[in-house]
TrEMBL record, chains A, B:
GO terms for biological process: thiamine biosynthetic process; thiamine diphosphate biosynthetic process. This is Thiamine-monophosphate kinase. The gene is thiL. Mg(2+) 1 binds at residues 50-51, 126. Its EC number is 2.7.4.16.
Amino acid sequence: MLSEFSLIDRFFARRAAALRPPNPAGDTLGIGDDCALLAPRAGEMLAISTDMLVEGRHFFADIDPHALGHKALAVNLSDLAAMGAQPQAFTLAFSLPKADEAWLCGFSEGLFTLAERYGCELIGGDTTGGPLNLCITVFGSVPPQTALRRDTAQPGDDIWVSGTLGDARAGLGLQRGEWSADANDIATFRQALERPEPRVALGLALRGIAHAALDLSDGLAGDLLHILERSSVGASVDVDAVPRSAALRRLPHDVQQRCTLAGGDDYELCFTAPVAARAAVEAAAHKASVPVTRIGTISALAAATDRPAIAWRNATGAPLTVTLQGFDHFHAE
Amino acid sequence: MLSEFSLIDRFFARRAAALRPPNPAGDTLGIGDDCALLAPRAGEMLAISTDMLVEGRHFFADIDPHALGHKALAVNLSDLAAMGAQPQAFTLAFSLPKADEAWLCGFSEGLFTLAERYGCELIGGDTTGGPLNLCITVFGSVPPQTALRRDTAQPGDDIWVSGTLGDARAGLGLQRGEWSADANDIATFRQALERPEPRVALGLALRGIAHAALDLSDGLAGDLLHILERSSVGASVDVDAVPRSAALRRLPHDVQQRCTLAGGDDYELCFTAPVAARAAVEAAAHKASVPVTRIGTISALAAATDRPAIAWRNATGAPLTVTLQGFDHFHAE
């Protein structure tokens, strides 16, 4: 006798099987055995990332399940993008309070629509009863020599970000009643919060061009610091240069600043590249159809014992004190 | 400012780093970047499995955290064993109601003690607040030609199981008050339930010998059926030959039978091998220091349209009706 959760497994497995290429390469093995079998492309390595999403911490209980399916995979694909890896496959484990068919249809539709777009195959998983919790582990292929790491920023590098920052946090603030906006802007912010677009094409195009990269999930101020700490460098950032949408520009200036610098949930790429590579970066961005903006410069630490830090400045180069304390974002841990 | 959950991440990352070999092979990358980088051994593939454990469904709230750390990884290593894969690495994502230091110390000690024993490196993870939920994804290396799959059982094969079955379910029954036992037997059953030993060495030794294999997590009756369905074969099993511990033999006969056939949580291997390989199987078991027992035979389906099924019989070969309906095990989905 199959329980409802075994039936869910079968539903996802069927959908996954329908997506498989008719002649899968070699001896790859998907759902249905104790393990899946997977190999990176010849000469490459697997890039692997795992994320757990919990109701109330990473999304609201009333989120559209289609959007949740999209976002759960998108945030993982964003980690692959940040390594310059080509998506290959993912596993999905989730616990659900009950097997609600409409919810599962919406969720799986959002999930598989994005997976298909990136040729990313569901190769295994686990489903169980319990409070709503989603755990995806994603696999991409990348040549280790050109993987975009965090520990390879160089003094003198430009600092770039893709797209615009802050819209997702503006959307969260709307839902929390922290500020208000008109209907069009609400739609823009909500789209950013619920349906982030992983910058996979940009990550691939930046192989061999960018020195260091990561994806912005916790906000620029905190995430850029990860590059600085791992690379033992400092940074100077022009706060006014940080790109923001027209919708965000209609919110109060201090809200704009906090949303762009500490908003979280952006899933844009932040990367460093030598000054000599500016044209190559612009060409990569054009190829990937994603705008990129220079926002600052990597600096050497004055002394090896100095703590890596970000010096914020305005467009004229004057130092700026930026207070982000107490401004939380969605997944504050 | 780091939240308590970021601090937990750091705690696990430090412990993982301390375990890393001083000169990790090539360009592997562990915790601290957007993704880990991992490759199987030359000419091999990665075997990948993911399991999610939820409080109340897969373990009791009052479980010793050391035992939980052990078991969470053990059930995943058991999936690698069932493929004949050599453990390489794992990712750990978990949500916790609060960051309790004593609990985390016990949990991580149980986890890393087992990980060290199998040279299995923690390469990434995610920690968040929320109801207790553990999701481990494990990676092993296996030559695809000799991976132990489920769909390769052949008519005439012997059916084997490792170790003894049913003790974990006996332990669950004790905790639920379904039956009682003396103190020594209670310790035996509890050990089986909380600290299963993945049969990694046996899986490796069976490469090229066994035709098909899986690990027993949901009980022999249900799990063997997975091999039969995937291989389109039937099976005949001698119920009295299914190995059980001395402790289990002291419980009533009908409890023994249900625990061994539908107990779940055994994490022993069930595998098929040709009759001509009996000596080779015994030698592999000896090499791995794990007893193995022949319990039945794989048969051809009478017609291609027949449903694969298990014919239960007793030691004299007489057919036996075995009723397992309504006998649940710990993770009933």
